[in-house]
Amino acid sequence: MRYLPKLQQLKVFQQVIRSGSIRGAARALGQSQPAVSRTVRELEQILQTQLIVRSSQGMTLTETGRVFALRMQLILEELQRAADEIQQINQHSQGSVAFGCSSLLALTVLPALVDDFKQSFPQANLGIREAQLSTLLPALREGRLDFAVGTVSPELPLEGLVREPLFDASFCIIARREHPLAQATTLDELREAKWLLPETDMGYYQQLQSVLGTFYQQLTSPPIRTDSVVCGLNMVLQENYLTIVARAMSTPFYLQQRLVVLPIKSLPQAQYCVLYSEKSPLTVTARRFLDLLRIHCQRHAW
């Protein structure tokens, strides 16, 4: 390969992937379809490979197209991050931070953390994505997130990522205060109850699976699976479901008078970690946010 691809070619190819077609990319970029097609052909010629296949059903990436798209996304995200950091230096801009976390942080330290951060960086752009860590990993690897917080388990692919422990959290079973099993003290008493559990079986919930796997198999009816905190709480409050949450989440949304923690203490603790790229340095703004996150996590009673 005599020449490297041009930045504009990468951006056009990125838009083709996002739009799913040459026509959609041309519309999004404000260019003609022939111009977009020509740019893609030039990129293929430079790389000496076919990147996309067009058919009546639409556009699909070839094997080499998928490999190149992954690397290209990292390059473009890193370039954007570098440009943002230079802008911060030259224009005293306050930059941006994008991070992901589970609902535990969202319902505990996040409001005070954001308030602290905004006092130092009032003009900074802040993006927050709430999801399980297994769902956040692709965005973290592609550079769309600066870092992510969650529980880690052995099967999660963490190559190229720094893993930094933040805190340990206790978990518990919660129910509606009037639930007929609200005073149960053993899991055996809960086999005929209605259960709602997180959809993921990774991170802490894999640990739960290994501890409670036999109990799950003995349930009278299979549990409902969801990662939605709002859905879960509503099912607990309205339809007498039981669910497992971090103890620090047992009184969300000022529902202390309507929810109760069952007196069962056989659930393992979970270690929450922050993950960030080993090779791509965090911006000044992201580093400051992470410093504040560490402080707030250390102070909180998990």
UniProtKB/TrEMBL annotation:
Pfam families: HTH_1, LysR_substrate. It comes from Serratia fonticola. Belongs to the LysR transcriptional regulatory family. Transmembrane segments: none annotated. One of its GO terms (cellular component) is cytosol. Keywords: DNA-binding, Repressor, Transcription, Transcription regulation. PROSITE patterns: HTH_LYSR. Residues 5-62 form the HTH lysR-type domain. This is LysR family tdc operon transcriptional activator. GO terms for molecular function: DNA binding; DNA-binding transcription factor activity. InterPro entries: HTH-type_LysR_regulators, LysR_HTH_N, LysR_subst-bd, WH-like_DNA-bd_sf, WH_DNA-bd_sf.
